[in-house]
Amino acid sequence: MGRREKRLSPKKNILFLCTGNACRSQMAEGFARALKADVLNPYSAGVERHGLDPRAVAVMAEAGVDISGQTSKLVADLPPDVAFDAVITLCGAAHDTCPFFPGTVEKRHAGFDDPPALAAGAASEEEALDHYRRVRDAIREFVVKEF
């Protein structure tokens, strides 16, 4: 997968990569867009496409960030002319299967728990959402601190 080295702006192009681009990477893209738009062009993708998780949309809305217009996508769906400065994997599966990105792309791993897996054993919807909130808050802290 060759990407042309075209710089669209002086901002850093950051890709948040997760397994299904349904939850964690969507949250990271949303926070980066909302909190760091002055220095980042955030993108997200998955090694698979699982669809946008409605619970992720709900807990992000609680935090004042609307990700409802974002879509679940694969790396191949991203604009081919974007040169990424960094690829941040947010789960072990994405880290283990991270595709090749040409050029001097910084690859980093910042693993976060999988909210759907945590919520699978929840006794109520509120308990399930609490798992999402905990991961959401950890992702927000990561975005604020790292960028």
Based on helices, strands and strand pairing, what is the structural class? Answer: alpha/beta
As a percent range, the share of helical residues equals 25-40%
Radius of gyration: 15 Å
How many helical stretches? 5
Q: What is the CATH topology assignment?
A: Rossmann fold
Give structural attributes.
alpha/beta; disordered N terminus; four-stranded parallel sheet; Rossmann fold; 147 residues
Descriptive overview:
The protein is of the alpha/beta class and about 150 residues long. The chain has helices spanning about 25-35, 55-60, 90-95, 115-120, 125-145, and strands at about 10-20, 40-45, 85-90, 105-110. Strands 2-1-3-4 form a four-stranded parallel beta sheet. The protein is globular. The chain starts with 11 loop residues before the first strand and ends with a helix. Belongs to the low molecular weight phosphotyrosine protein phosphatase family.
